[in-house]
Amino acid sequence: MPRGEKSKYTDKQQHKAEHIEQSYEQKGVPKDEAEARAWATVNKQTGGGERKGGSGRAKSETAKRADRKDSAYRAAKARSGDAPNQRPARTTRSGSTSLTELTRDELMQRARERDVRGRSTMRKDELIKALS
């Protein structure tokens, strides 16, 4: 069962969680497990409930979009039976759209290719921002 107060979530997030939960239940997942998975998915995709103030790190819309696309890609692969729980090797990941999944070295290489100024002193999150 999911922990925590859910009143801080937007109506859209709550609706999404209900929809995901129903989908899991139709697949035969027990209700408590389906609910926990649904909220975990909503949290990953949207960064959790509504927050006031500046606590925590916010994901950029680009990063969220890329994560959703990557998640949909993995789900489609799982449905088709292609390596359901395995990620592709790092060397074959050049087609990935999510910069957040790349290592700092890989980001640095992309920044070098695009001739991003000041890249040598940038941290990973700064490189992601510069490449987005």
From TrEMBL:
The record, for InterPro entries, names: Rho-like_N (IPR011112), Rho_N_sf (IPR036269)
GO biological process per UniProt: DNA-templated transcription termination
Signal sequence coordinates: none
Chain segments annotated as coiled-coil in the UniProt record? none
Tell me the ranges covered by the Rho termination factor-like N-terminal domain, including all copies: 99-130
User: Basic and acidic residues bias: where?
Assistant: 1-36, 49-72, 102-132
Q: Where is this region: Disordered?
A: 1-132
By what name is this protein known? Answer: Termination factor Rho
Origin species, per record, is Stutzerimonas zhaodongensis
Please name the taxonomic classification of the source.
Bacteria, Pseudomonadati, Pseudomonadota, Gammaproteobacteria, Pseudomonadales
